[in-house]
Design brief:
The structure is a single chain. By secondary structure, this protein is mostly helical. It has one domain: Fumarate Reductase Cytochrome B subunit, CATH 1.20.950. It has 7 helices and 6 strands, in the order E-H-H-H-H-E-E-H-H-E-E-E-H. Strands 1-4 form a two-stranded antiparallel sheet. A two-stranded antiparallel sheet has the order 2-3. Strand 2 and strand 3 form a beta hairpin. Helix 1 packs across helix 5. Bound molecules: protoporphyrin IX containing FE (2 copies).
Length: 220
Amino acid sequence: MQATSVTRVLVWSNRLRLAHWILGLSCVGLLITGWLMNNTPLLAQSAAEIHFMLSGLFLPALLLRLYLLLFGKGSEQISSCEPNLHRLSQTWLVLKFYLTLGKAPLPKWYSHNPLWGPVYLVLFFFLLLSAISGLMLLKDITMVGTLSLNDVHHLSYQVILVFTLLHIPAVFSHDLAGKGADISGMINGQRIFEVENPQQSKESGTQAVALQDLLKSLKR
Ligand code: HEM
Ligand code: HEM
């Protein structure tokens, strides 16, 4: 008889989650204080000070995330965001889920969402660009050759803003419609997977699932 069981797997390491939440919160703060700096003359000075303080949170988190991307393990690595043939086929299914407003089912994936994985890599590039341009603007360097660093900072924070406005509803919709407990997973590190045909352990009455079986079921 076919049975389905669920299992929790540690997908996101402590250090990746730490980097995610510090980056996420500091970016929201940097966007708000950046806007206040430009649009509210009364608050501009205090907003600039907070913008500077938040950059002190943002920078180490970004450096940690970039270090993990290059030298980390498993889901931390750049390869877990990169597209491959299997992920490209799943990308279409995620798009279909959005286009049908959640009526089409979401595919199963292990760590990074197959559609969003490459988007995260683009985001990391713009996060780095915002940091470099921001640091140079702080040192009153406004031009590199013919390139205006104000323009670079503008472009990068606009990309980060658009990402944030799409990312938050997207992860909420995945959590709502999918079975992976995605948001809770980004908090405690563990995603939930359904596994078909697990080996039943008669003695304990519990179901043991090999990770290999789990990974196979994800390729369906
Ligand atoms: C309420 C706010 C947020 C929630 C609930 C949230 C939740 C999540 C979840 C569940 C994932 C895993 C998605 C997946 O399957 O790929 C994720 C990934 C990610 N999120 Fe967020 N997020 C939030 C805000 C942000 C913000 C503001 C940023 C940056 C501007 C951000 C950047 C990222 C990045 C880069 C990843 C990929 C994980 C990594 O490789 O580090 N998130 N987020
Ligand atoms: C190391 C990180 C960062 C530093 C040191 C930094 C520094 C600065 C400085 C010095 C300015 C004033 C520019 C001017 O003279 O006009 C500025 C403006 C601004 N920054 Fe940042 N920034 C950083 C990261 C970010 C990030 C990650 C975001 C968005 C997520 C952001 C959003 C803004 C906004 C919205 C403005 C104001 C609008 C504007 O001048 O066009 N900054 N930042």
